[in-house]
Write a structure and sequence with these properties.
mainly alpha, 15 helices, globular
Length: 330
């Protein structure tokens, strides 16, 4: 008895083929998900080698009595547990007092530098939004400090701040007659203001570039409607420009804060290995504590404490700004 093949309806054939066909979108979806991770893999490996591995080594060194006697074999340095941290935060001892004073100086320097960079960058970006002759030239000119190499720019300022042959004293004292004698800019109390001038001159073009990019996303119709309602320039900046740039400014201020607080190149090139007491930033202070006194254990402990401080400040800042953004959106 022979069995005859029964023709299947087209619906059943489609139903049986559907599961096989559904595998292709799943595979393509997995490839789409995996592609960003593959593209980020070289950057992650570079981050691991350049930052994470040295950071872990520095944390390990902070728990050892690593001095000049163990430079060649630092892994054989005696284990000191939290003794280095105790020395760093003992504010009754000379080491702790010097670290605390350097920390406070860095905080004041960072607040002034970030504030002035943001103010100058925002003012220049708002001013250059208007169409006028020479706007392209001014935009290019304002970006010159940001494009120059750090060492070339800071060394130029160091020559300008020279007491006897510098341009600053030549203009202020010789040409304008300010002061009884030429001022010392690279030593004494004036060193703080010299460092601040160089930092602001070097950093404000980044704020200008960032704010200028954010201004491109604000529709011109909002300004035109505000002008028709009788709003002047200051009201437009207060009620349109600044609220529209809130997300841009949140990121900008955080980046400027981290760059300025960790700045090592500017004071090192401007003052050398030993900065004046008035301009003793914490980055250079940790360098001196490590490479001048050859006490790498204490210097590593100071670096870890600085890292923890920056992580806490960054976390609190992001938490507050995120809450503020959600509140304003509601």
């Amino acid at each position: 008895m022979t069995r005859t093949a029964v023709a299947q309806p087209p619906e059943q054939a489609v139903r049986k083929a559907a599961p096989g066909e559904a595998r292709t979108p799943r595979r393509s979806g997995r490839r789409r998900i995996a592609l960003p991770y593959l593209l980020l893999l070289p950057a992650l490996l570079l981050e691991l080698l350049v930052h994470l591995v040295p950071m872990l080594m520095g944390i390990t060194m902070s728990f050892r009595e690593l001095t000049q006697f163990y430079i060649r074999n630092w892994s054989e340095a005696p284990w000191s547990a939290f003794d280095n941290y105790g020395v760093a935060i003992d504010f009754d001892a000379p080491v702790g007092q010097a670290l605390l004073k350097s920390f406070l100086t860095t905080c004041m320097f960072t607040v002034l530098s970030v504030g002035l960079c943001w103010l100058l960058g925002t003012a220049a970006a708002v001013f250059l939004q208007e169409n006028f002759r020479g706007r392209g030239f001014l935009r290019t000119l304002f970006l010159v400090p940001y494009a120059l190499p750090v060492y070339a720019a800071v060394i130029t300022w160091a020559f300008m701040f020279q007491r006897d042959n510098g341009l600053i004293n030549h203009v202020l004292h010789d040409q304008l007659g300010i002061g009884d004698s030429p001022a010392f800019w690279l030593i004494g109390d004036n060193s703080f203001w010299a460092l601040l001038i160089v930092s602001v001159w070097k950093g404000w073009p980044f704020a200008f570039l960032t704010v200028m990019a954010g201004l491109q996303n604000i529709p011109r119709d909002m300004y035109e409607a505000a002008a028709l309602d009788g709003a002047g320039m200051w009201k437009q900046i207060r009620h349109i420009t600044l609220p529209s740039l809130r997300s841009v400014n949140q990121v900008l201020v955080l980046v400027l804060f981290l760059w300025t607080f960790n700045d090592f190149n500017t004071p090192f090139v401007l003052f050398g290995k030993a900065a004046p007491e008035a301009a003793d930033l914490i980055s250079l202070h940790i360098y001196q504590s490590s490479f001048q006194t050859w006490n790498f254990g204490t210097g590593s402990a100071m670096s870890v404490l600085l890292l923890l401080f920056l992580l806490v400040v960054t976390g609190v800042y992001l938490l507050l700004t995120t809450r503020g953004r959600k509140t304003s959106d509601v």
